[in-house]
Design brief:
Strand content: 25-35%
Protein name: Phosphoesterase
Number of domains: 1
Organism: Pseudonocardia eucalypti
Enzyme class: hydrolase
CATH topology: Purple Acid Phosphatase, chain A, domain 2
Low-confidence stretches: none
Cofactor: a divalent metal cation
Distance between the termini: 35 Å
Largest sheet: 5 strands, mixed
Mean pLDDT: 94
Radius of gyration: 15 Å
EC number: 3.1.4.-
Shape: globular
CATH superfamily: Metallo-dependent phosphatases
């Protein structure tokens, strides 16, 4: 892909186990995005089918709560180059302490690493390594005050306008 690209980043939807449905605001964001990224813990294959049918382009991975049906269709790590930005997606990155150092070592040829698992939004840059983004969860906020997801834009071979979106529960 070249030119400007609108990204939607989500993770940990847990539909239908913990999250009963994807919020309408997130479906609107899916419709507006050029690329939808899901960093695992879908739980039900039905959401994968629905997103694959609705998104212009879908990049996803499986998470620790995803069973054989999802693991058969999704990789553990996905890599894409979008308008010159090297993107990697994985579900788990380990503990918050030392995350930047670990991810820089594990993903040295990556500009942006999208991950999930914690349900806690995260935005940091590893020294000499990738920008790390966790969009939280749009359906299972756990200890967070709101449900969340992220949008961003790729333009001129760089990531721009990263925004964390909040939906009150």
């Amino acid at each position: 892909m070249t030119g400007e690209i609108r990204l939607l980043l989500m993770s940990d939807t847990h539909v239908p186990a913990r999250g009963r449905r994807v919020p309408e605001a997130l479906w609107r964001a899916v419709d507006e995005a050029d690329v939808v990224v899901h960093a695992g813990d879908w739980v039900g294959v039905e959401l994968l089918d629905e997103l694959a049918a609705r998104a212009r382009r879908l990049v996803g991975v499986y998470g620790n709560n995803d069973g054989p049906a999802l693991r058969a269709r999704l990789p553990e790590v996905a890599r894409e180059t979008l308008a010159g930005v090297r993107l990697a997606v994985v579900h788990e990155t380990g503990a918050a302490a030392g995350r930047e150092r670990r991810c820089a070592a594990r993903y040295p040829d990556t500009d942006v690493l999208v991950f999930g698992h914690s349900h806690i939004p995260w935005d940091s840059v590893a020294p000499g390594g990738p920008r790390l983004l966790n969009p939280g969860s749009p359906t299972d906020r756990r200890r967070q005050p709101t449900h969340t997801w992220m949008t961003a834009r790729i333009a001129g071979a760089s990531l721009e306008d990263v925004r964390l979106h909040h939906l009150e529960s």
